[in-house]
Amino acid sequence: MSGVWADVAVVVALLLALAWYLSYTAARLDRLHARVEGSLASLDAQLVRRAEAAAEYAQVAALDPASALLLASSAADSLQAADSALITDDVQQVGVPVERAQAETALTQTLALVVGDASATDGAASRAETAGRRPISTVPDVPGSAPADGDDGARQRLADACDRVELAYRFHNEAVRDVRRVRAKAIVRALHLAGRTQLPEEVTFATRVHGLGRTDAWR
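Above: the chain sequence. Below: its structure as tokens.
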């Protein structure tokens, strides 16, 4: 008789362990889903801030008219795509729609073309000053012209915004990968522990602007 009770105790212990594991996994999934929601909202906010900083830079920086117009247009397209995007409180399969991803990639490419080269020029000038030489300007002096007062401040704000976008992009995709890793387990799929929550996908668009921001030093 004692052997029967021992077997029952083992079965009960196994059932309790299984119940604890399922409860733990379900709670972990809830936390991971919440992390995906939060990281997507953060990415959305950082993309909007980057577009606003790019629009400001296009207005105050000493750019040629064609570059300023190109940058302002790309920033406006990004803001328009942000207004059209639907960010909900639920986990979305596609966090950033194709149209917005294209607009963000276009803005990144425009920033690399218009601002990245300017940052590289500033870096060369700074190195020349450090070496005790007067930097050679790549733009001829125009009588009566003066650098814009807000140029440096706007560029720094733009660089910070680009850094935050790249970080938010990485954090969101890491959160998505963590969710997909847990939901790929056989027991999670068999028992439908994720319920009807959509399986999120990583976002894919260009974020890195060479020569602008601090993220270049992290690679």
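The radius of gyration is 26 Å.
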